[in-house]
Amino acid sequence: MRIRKPPFEITNMMLFRVAEIAELVGRLTALNPFSGNPTLRRTNRIRTIHGSLAIEQNTLSLEQVTAVLNGKHVLAPPKDIAEVKNAYEIYERLDELDPYSVDDLLTAHGIMTRGLVEESGMFRTRPVGVVDQEGHILHFGTLPQYVPDLVMELLDWVKNSDVHMLIRSCVFHYEFELIHPFADGNGRVGRLWHTLLLSKWNPAFAWLPVESIIHDHQQEYYAAINASNDAGEPTVFIEFMLSAIKASLTDAINLSDGMSDGPIDKATMRWKQIEKFLKTHPFIMNADVRELCGVSAATANRILIGLAAEGNLTKCREGGHWAYKLN
Q1: Are residues 174 and 302 in the same domain?
Q2: CA separation (Å) from 321 to 14, 256, 298?
Q3: Kind and range of the H or E element at 148?
Q4: Residues 112, 49: one domain?
Q5: Coil, strand or helix: which one is 318?
Q6: Residue 3 belongs to a domain
Q7: Is 62 exposed, middle or buried (0-12, 13-18, 19+ CB in 10 A)?
Q8: d(CA 298, CA 273)
Q9: Cβ contacts of residue 190 below 8 Å, gap of 6+?
Q10: Which residues of 161-193 are buried (b: 16+ CB within 10 A; e: fewer)?
Q11: Rounded Cα distance, 127 and 125, in Å
Q12: Is residue 80 within 8 Å of residue 60, measured between CB atoms?
């Protein structure tokens, strides 16, 4: 059977990004931040889940997602809590999944949407229109009778193509969303599968919160999909995703730099996250720390007071509220 090649061209920008990412992966592998640090792995996994679900309008904050996964009671819509638990379960089983198996793809969808959608773990049986977060129609998904064959063709292409996996996985992500094989959960499963493909190229990607970067640049994510739909091929989307992958690697390296003498502790990790935030924001407030670190208001306050006492931050007033700036 001749496998259909998705319509895309490899640009100089893509090759440049692939070279940058390969270099960063080498640096990250040398630092090896995930091997001896379950705290860092869990923190990144929670950021991944929060980011991917938040793109789909899940209302839970990073703090609430952390609380749910720690078995605490959270006052939130039951559907949103179920989405968090389901997503965590399938991400924890990432290394068991075959990225080229239709059966494993359906299994992943079944876990991701368990108890949430009628057609869980199966391809959709009805036509569907794809809309963005503002309700604008992006495109109409493939007619349901063609979905199984197109998904199988796409997975076969990803498996057998000689294109670099960094580009191949981005093409998969775009084409998967274009087919829109499920009644619901396409975005979540597409991002999961993108991470799975990358993790088979390099295991570090299983712990990199690329989804969190996408969430931070959500408007650009949808704009890249729209631009690629208009062009009829995914060049803009591939370039956007490669930039997101690069950003997630840069974050991980920045977090690990200077910590090769021993495992990263929780306090240092929190400071690195706050320091990174303050590189692009003039000040930080309690609510920002809660979101960044997944902690309560009281803990966020203790963190800020402690950093001010150490001389890292200075307390100030912003808009009638207490805030902190870099010293």
Answers
A1: no
A2: 44, 33, 16
A3: helix 147-160
A4: yes
A5: strand
A6: no
A7: buried
A8: 18
A9: 173, 176, 177
A10: bebbbbbbbbbbbbbbbbbbbbbbbbbbbbbbb
A11: 7
A12: yes
Number of domains, the chain: 2
The angle subtended at Cα 300 by Cα 294 and Cα 302, nearest 5°, is: 140
Read off the amino acid at residue 76: A
Question: Structure pTM?
Answer: 0.81
Neighbours of 201 (CB within 10 A): 15
Q: What angle do CA 37, 41, 43 make, to 5 degrees?
A: 115
The answer to the question of residue 212 being in a domain is yes
Residues 49 and 104 in one domain: yes
Q: What are the pLDDT tens digits along the chain (327 aa)? A: 456 789 999 999 999 999 999 999 999 988 877 777 788 889 899 999 999 999 999 999 988 999 999 999 999 999 999 999 999 999 999 999 999 999 999 999 999 999 999 999 999 999 987 776 677 776 778 899 999 999 999 999 999 999 999 999 999 999 999 999 999 999 999 999 999 999 999 999 999 999 999 998 899 999 999 999 999 999 999 999 999 999 999 988 877 764 544 455 678 878 988 998 898 899 999 989 988 887 778 888 989 998 998 889 999 999 889 999 998
CATH number at residue 67: 1.10.3290.10
Answer yes or no: is 261 within a domain: no
Side chain identity at residue 170, one-letter code: C
Examine the domain organization and report whether 184 and 226 are in the same domain. Answer: yes
In terms of domains, do 221 and 276 share one? no
